[in-house]
Design a protein that fits this description.
Helix content is about 30%, strand content about 10%. The protein has about 270 residues and is of the alpha/beta class. The N and C termini lie far apart (about 50 Å). The chain binds iron/sulfur cluster (2 copies) and FE3-S4 cluster.
């Protein structure tokens, strides 16, 4: 992988909080700087590129005519109401920009639940008509790999990029999430599951039972319905929501903001 010319990546930001990029900056083994120095050529990314304004725009246009092509990554939902006027970059709507870039990409990755399924801005009443990449861009032939999560574990993104570059398209589930990372539920590997099986449910946040590792299901945990690898992948190498005492809110599932709220049952 490292001896080949580094493939170009164009990383677009739409309607979102940038938390997915923040997560990605904390990738390890490999670290983010190793990824962009040794593995890929990050030719456009508004959050981490040094260029701004016209120079940034020029870098984007240059990447788009690279004869060797590029991988497109989109973070954020795509506003579609009123011609997409609720989100613009460089005078172009996010919808137009994403359609233009993703429709010509070698592969497209939707990074985070906003890009996969619309995210918080698509929650009712969804004033901007925000949609996930595949829903918004299906008509122009885009079929993105969904790296779901709010934010996703950076390992799931990096692993997908490496898979694409070395073995091609990973096997996907019905929501276009790579089975490698989203094949099992959070509940399947949760260390609190032994208490779930014995009917031992913590009665409150911070209760002695919660601290002893009892199950958080009655406090609102959506782990049994949520496909993600948080218990085994961990965030920042150390922790994940349920281990920290917070129920899983189902952040890698479609429309989780509407479907799973209220998140907590204190
Ligand atoms: Fe932020 Fe979550 Fe959307 Fe990522 S998926 S941009 S963390 S709101
Ligand atoms: Fe399942 Fe959640 Fe209980 Fe863990 S805390 S065993 S994921 S219901
Ligand atoms: Fe999200 Fe649940 Fe993991 S809330 S981060 S899928 S534990």
């Amino acid at each position: 992988l490292m001896t080949k010319k580094r493939p170009s990546v164009v990383y677009l930001h739409c309607a979102e909080c940038t938390g997915c990029t923040e997560g990605l900056l904390r990738a390890y083994e490999p670290y983010f700087d190793e990824i962009i120095m040794n593995t890929i050529s990050l030719d456009y990314c508004e959050t981490v590129m040094a260029a701004a304004g016209d120079a940034a725009h020029a870098a984007l246009e240059k990447a788009l005519i690279n004869p060797e092509g590029y991988i497109c990554v989109i973070e954020g939902g795509i506003p579609t109401r009123h011609g997409g006027e609720y989100g613009k970059v460089g005078g172009e709507t996010m919808f137009q920009l994403c359609a233009r870039v993703a429709s010509k990409a070698m592969a497209t990755i939707a990074m985070g639940s906003c890009a996969c399924f619309g995210g918080v801005q698509a929650a009712a009443p969804n004033p901007s008509g925000a949609k996930g990449v595949n829903e918004a861009l299906k008509a122009v032939g885009v079929n993105a790999i969904n790296i779901a999560g709010c934010p996703p574990n950076p390992m799931n993104f990096v692993g997908t990029v490496v898979h694409l570059l070395t073995k091609g398209m990973p096997e996907l589930d019905t929501w276009n999430r790579p089975l490698l990372f989203f094949g099992d539920t959070v509940h399947d590997h949760c260390p609190r599951q032994k208490h779930f099986n014995k009917g031992e449910f913590a009665p409150g946040f911070g209760s002695p039972e919660a601290k002893k590792g009892w199950c958080l299901y009655q406090l609102g945990c959506k782990g049994p319905y949520t496909y993600n690898n948080c218990p085994t992948a961990l965030f920042n190498q150390v922790n994940w929501p349920v281990k920290a005492g917070a129920p899983c809110i189902g952040c890698s599932e479609p429309n989780f903001w509407d479907k799973y709220s209220p998140f907590f049952h204190p």
